[in-house]
What we know:
With 492 residues, the protein is mostly helical. It has 20 helices and eight strands.
Amino acid sequence: xxxxxxxxxxxxxxxxxxxxxxxxxxxxxxxxxxxxxxxxxxxxxxxxxxxxxxxxxxxxxxxxxxxxxxxxxxxxxxxxxxxxxxxxxxxxxxxxxxxxxxxxxxxxxxxxxxxxxxxxxxxxxxxxxxxxxxxxxxxxxxxxxxxxxxxxxxxxxxxxxxxxxxxxxxxxxxxxxxxxxxxxxxxxxxxxxxxxxxxxxxxxxxxxxxxxxxxxxxxxxxxxxxxxxxxxxxxxxxxxxxxxxxxxxxxxxxxxxxxxxxxxxxxxxxxxxxxxxxxxxxxxxxxxxxxxxxxxxxxxxxxxxxxxxxxxxxxxxxxxxxxxxxxxxxxxxxxxxxxxxxxxxxxxxxxxxxxxxxxxxxxxxxxxxxxxxxxxxxxxxxxxxxxxxxxxxxxxxxxxxxxxxxxxxxxxxxxxxxxxxxxxxxxxxxxxxxxxxxxxxxxxxxxxxxxxxxxxxxxxxxxxxxxxxxxxxxxxxxxxxxxxxxxxxxxx
Length: 492
């Protein structure tokens, strides 16, 4: 917290141009500039904290763009019927939550670290290398997220420290060049991380997290960018490296997401939120107080009340709810069905809420400050299964490791048996749905498996609009960046 406070104060000074003088014509002496800031190890650590704050500020964009266009969602009890993303109705004026400039702020923070940290003297090279590794990993992750969202991108590898249009205004680079940078950044990060350990609460980039990202990237390029066998092989190798770290599947699925269990041993990387830092992605999938009926079960009251700031904008669709079997523990660790009861005791389904991010209740209010998991071991095991299947290898071991926990005593009824490549792909994609729902993965999974237009109801009638695989670039972006051209299909 001291680092956060110090960095915040520095930024306030920069923004406001505060001075110790009572007059207006004296040069400021307390403003933090590039020349005065990037001097010490503490400066670098403070800027590192700032980079993570920038990432956390776009947490909603990371998760909504990765999930809400999928078949998981439908409208909640308030206002969800016209929701842009799960209706796949984005326009340049209503582009969803994809935050172009929010992403570039994170990239700029990483670029600043990569430019200035090499010139700072540290107590140990390992500490310096660790910061540089995190900056490379962060830049790779954000560019990966952005190129999945918009395709070609403006590549910025130097910090933006001037308003000079000749420097700041650039055309988009081909997606192949974007992926070349992403892969290069990942390798640089992996070479620089001093060990295979995790930071406190597993809320910062680490070597295992960079390897999880590598597996994710190479799976994408294997399937979407014609990378083929070589990229599948690289993905498997990255997964193998992840599994050498201090990780395990927690015995109880719901325990992964408990507020009291942040940074547990299944977690590889998460976005960390403190108790008073609520308002993250999960509040969208909770229910507002005025919408909680009186005639619900005591179990539902114990869970839902007090409700805090939930909006009930989105809930799990019936299409997905009905695919979970009652013997799958992930059903009860993912969502909760709310029923009303009449005077005869007969029940009627009312709505559901996500229970992967219920936050914490303090002083009678619920704060949605659960951590948002970016990567965890189960995700990596399923990525490994996918890569093995891509190479005509048997993915049974990894799939069954996931199912053993999911079904417990009923596992023998759900043992996976190797089938054809297409059958295995369907099984892996479905397993990822049950395991990772509400974790910002589903839309990207559907694109990677080329199933979006087959499985998403709002896309099934739009198979002629393949441009919908990408998001539109907001008109507000285009107005400020004249060299950036709109994605095909969205031109007005």
